[in-house]
């Protein structure tokens, strides 16, 4: 059987607004697990859904072509949507126990879907249907909720500083050869802004990094603390206030792009537009920034470190794969997940578009571009300096991030002091975590 007829009937959702993690529709499991047809040659239809754009869809379709050709009894029906509409559809399906057999999963939603039985544990499939031998252990355990694994990362990424080296040289700024401390990095941003003040348009050192939720997690790890500890916040209000207090100095000194100016960048990254000479972001964003309107030549270097050299770096699991708890063919679904995560041909098809492939075998298939090679080389370096771990997949994690970003913007604009902001965030965070 081919998938062409079935696929034409698959519903493809449109893009929409991002849905907060707290809006997930959850309900308890209804009844027992469906009985599986164990005949390996019996016809099987799997429904597979993901979020993403047309480019990602083309890649998945190309991978599925290979899989169906090698597994002629398997038909895979697909659907995709923008991130917000994707989760709206999944929430509705979760409530009615009609989720697609295989779904893309995000760390922010993993706890809700796993703890309510909407997605199935993968542990029983590890070793037979799904190989995890070539995947970093921290990426495997990142998919755990209460001791069971409900999502498997197909890719990973790490935080990196990105320097526009040619621009820095034009400004007469010496490019650091060693990782900077936070105070040194702030001074570096100020030096860039001072040198770029006479350019048209003005060039700033960077962006207000205190708004970066995941960078705060790294800073906490450098201080020997964590975002989440045993289901509760692993740090104090004073820690967050100290982090956000850096914002006022960065903005008032002109070291970073003013928030009013940042708001004018609609659909364009300031680093890609050469409005700033450096920024901190996920390493797999390098191609995206490099392909900006100014086509900057960017170099990846480690982000700022603690005074004692602690990095706090961790690999963040990206684009996780989960199997629906209501799937009638979980074993077949597990074999498909193994293919998507581990097959080198899938690695070649996707390259770095989902992040660095989490699986060694998938990475072997990547034919890297020059930018891809730089990302791969950086992650190999990072692997030697991993000190932290991705935050536990607690319920409400998505809300913590969204609230963090919203409140940090008020700090940048001067609407809230660092202490006021920390107090507000803690109140909302503890409510989201139920502590």
Structure write-up:
The protein has 435 residues and is an alpha+beta fold. The protein has two domains: 4-155 and 317-380, D-Maltodextrin-Binding Protein, domain 2 (3-Layer(aba) Sandwich); 159-314 and 391-433, Periplasmic binding protein-like II (D-Maltodextrin-Binding Protein, domain 2), CATH 3.40.190.10. The chain contains 17 helices and 13 strands. The protein has a six-stranded mixed sheet with strand order 2-1-3-12-6-13. Helix 2 runs antiparallel to helix 13 (344-350). The radius of gyration is 22 Å and the shape is globular. This is Carbohydrate ABC transporter substrate-binding protein. It comes from Microbacterium radiodurans. InterPro entries: Bact_solute-bd_prot1, SBP.
Compact summary:
This is Carbohydrate ABC transporter substrate-binding protein. The chain is an alpha+beta fold and 435 residues long. The chain has two domains: 4-155 and 317-380, D-Maltodextrin-Binding Protein, domain 2 (3-Layer(aba) Sandwich), CATH 3.40.190; 159-314 and 391-433, D-Maltodextrin-Binding Protein, domain 2, CATH 3.40.190.10.
């Amino acid at each position: 059987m081919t998938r062409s007829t079935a696929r034409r009937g698959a519903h493809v959702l449109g893009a929409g607004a991002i849905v907060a993690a707290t809006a997930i529709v959850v309900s308890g499991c209804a009844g027992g697990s469906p009985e599986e047809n164990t005949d390996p040659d019996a016809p099987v239809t799997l429904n597979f859904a993901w979020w993403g754009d047309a480019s990602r869809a083309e890649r998945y379709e190309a991978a599925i072509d290979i899989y169906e050709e090698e597994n002629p009894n398997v038909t895979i029906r697909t659907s995709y949507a923008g991130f917000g509409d994707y989760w709206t559809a999944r929430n509705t399906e979760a409530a009615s126990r009609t989720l697609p057999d295989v779904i893309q999963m995000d760390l922010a939603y993993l706890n809700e879907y796993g703890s309510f039985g909407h997605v199935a544990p993968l542990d029983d499939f590890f070793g037979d249907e799904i190989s995890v031998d070539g995947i970093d252990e921290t990426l495997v355990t990142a998919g755990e909720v209460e001791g069971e694994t409900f999502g498997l990362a197909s890719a990973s990424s790490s935080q990196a500083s990105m320097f526009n080296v040619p621009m820095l040289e034009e400004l007469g700024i010496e490019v650091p050869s060693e990782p900077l401390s936070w105070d040194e990095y702030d001074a570096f941003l100020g030096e860039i802004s001072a040198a770029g003040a006479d350019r048209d348009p003005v060039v700033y050192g960077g962006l207000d990094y205190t708004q970066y939720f995941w960078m705060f997690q790294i800073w906490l790890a450098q201080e020997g603390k964590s975002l989440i500890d045993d289901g509760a916040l692993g740090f104090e209000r004073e820690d967050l206030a100290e982090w956000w207090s850096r914002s006022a100095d960065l903005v008032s000194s002109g070291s970073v792009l003013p928030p009013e100016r940042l708001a004018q960048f609609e659909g364009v990254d300031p680093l890609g537009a050469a409005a700033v000479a450096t920024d901190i972001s996920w390493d797999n964003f390098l191609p995206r920034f490099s392909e900006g309107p100014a086509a900057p030549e960017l170099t990846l270097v480690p982000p700022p470190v603690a005074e004692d050299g602690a990095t706090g770096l961790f690999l963040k699991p990206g684009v996780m794969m989960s199997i629906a708890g209501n799937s009638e063919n979980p074993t077949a679904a597990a074999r498909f997940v193994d293919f998507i995560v581990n097959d080198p041909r899938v690695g070649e098809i996707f390259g770095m578009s989902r992040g660095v492939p989490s699986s060694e075998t998938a990475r072997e298939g990547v034919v890297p571009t020059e930018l891809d090679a730089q990302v791969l080389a950086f992650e190999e370096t990072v692997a030697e300096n991993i000190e932290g771990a991705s935050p536990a997949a607690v319920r409400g994690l998505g809300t913590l991030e969204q609230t963090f970003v919203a409140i940090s913007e008020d700090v940048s604009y001067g609407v809230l002091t660092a202490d006021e902001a920390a107090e507000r965030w803690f109140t909302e965070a503890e409510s989201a975590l139920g502590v």
